[in-house]
Specification:
Layout lengths: L1 H38 L25 H5 L28 E8 L2 E7 L7 E3 L4 E2 L2 E6 L3 E6 L2 E6 H4 L26 H5 L7 E6 L2 E4 L10 E2 L2 E8 L2 E8 L1
Antiparallel strand pairs: 1-2, 2-3, 4-5, 5-6, 6-7, 8-9, 9-12, 10-11, 11-12
Length: 242
């Protein structure tokens, strides 16, 4: 029994000795590695700077335009402002010239007109301009003007001024503040009487007959002779040099 204990103790001593030797060898190797690592001179590597990132743009109010346009619940936030432009009202057409009669002479038809009733009446032929209107055509029933590129057609019976031209007041007579009322006999108002004298010049050397002139054909006055020629449009009256 005692011999077995001695053998066991001897085996334990051998095992402990082997363990201590192995630990010393590991310590010596670790120490050698430590010295080698600490004594090594390292070469510093160059530091490469990091690439610059994208530049951050400042936030602008205009960048929210797309958001405002696509806002479904706020239509008033649309940046596009629609301004309604009203068209200009059309220019009103002025009053038509006053028409006193139509003469069918040998060299064409002439209309006796004035731009305004108080102005002097003249003979106007197709193509002539009176006021803002241009006479285009005239026949027995209708008269045609052009104003601002538009045709204006009127019936002669509706347009003719049966009251005759307005005579201007004498210079020495003062105008009254109120409207003057003049009593005219019915017979005189319906059948105005003219003087047997030549009227306005409607062509070279030819003058028109005045309204209400009842003198017969062949009457001589102021160096002119009255001629009356029947035409399809009625009697054509004119004064020619004698």
């Amino acid at each position: 029994m005692k011999k077995k204990l001695l053998l066991l103790n001897a085996a334990l001593l051998v095992a402990i000795g082997a363990g201590v030797w192995r630990l010393r060898e590991a310590w010596v190797a670790a120490r050698a590695r430590e010295v080698a690592v600490l004594g090594r001179r390292g070469t510093p590597k160059s530091i490469v700077s990091a690439p610059a990132g994208p530049r951050i743009q400042p936030v602008l109010a205009t960048s929210y335009a797309e958001i405002a346009e696509k806002m479904l619940f706020a239509r008033d936030r649309n940046p596009t402002v629609v301004v309604e432009v009203k068209p200009e009202p059309p220019k009103p057409m002025p009053k038509l010239p006053a028409l006193y009669g139509v003469m069918n002479l040998l060299d064409g038809t002439t209309a006796i007109m004035s731009e305004k009733p108080e102005m002097k009446h003249i003979g106007v032929r197709p193509g002539d301009k009176i006021g803002e209107f241009t006479l285009v055509a005239v026949n027995r029933d209708e008269i045609t003007f052009v104003w601002e590129g538009k045709e204006v057609i009127r019936r002669i019976d509706d347009m003719i001024d049966r009251a005759g031209p307005v005579q201007p007041a004498p210079a020495g007579v003062a105008q009254r503040s109120g409207p003057a009322v003049v009593a005219v006999p019915p017979s005189q108002a319906q059948q105005p009487r003219g003087e047997p004298a030549p009227g306005v010049e409607v062509a070279k050397g030819i003058r028109a007959c005045q309204r209400g002139d009842t003198s017969p054909a062949g009457t001589v006055a102021d160096g002119y002779k009255k001629l009356v020629t029947p035409t399809p449009f009625g009697d054509s009256c004119r004064w020619v040099p004698q």
